[in-house]
Amino acid sequence: MAGTPGNDERILLVEDEDAIHKGTSRLLTSNGCLVFAAASAEEALSIFDPEDGSFQLAFSDAVLPAKSGVELGGQLLVLKPEIGTVLSSGYAGGKSQWSEIGEKGYPVIYKPYTAEKALHSIKENRRNYMSARRKASS
Fold it and tell me: Taking the complete model, does pTM exceed 0.90, yes or no?
């Protein structure tokens, strides 16, 4: 697929719905990404620390048990300011966290999403990640 992420990009995938979790993981892996999968924000953080935060992107469900994808994104940004975050959601609107998502500027893709949409979101965030890394090293 043209314009895919690839290059062993390290992605922290956080999704509590098993079928979506497995399908997205397969999609990303088949497109050259190294995927570290978690079913909750807590599990994602337990993966993030031992890996020294060496992820370019967190691809997270917006609605998770105990802690939302928005809260997780905020915690990851504190730990690694240049990490990209893409949220996915099955909710089209009316949820209380949409204003917070807008304030934080997280891109959101809606379920069910296509492979093309997911890969495009990752590619766009990779550009942002590389730009942030250049600024951080200046």
Answer: no
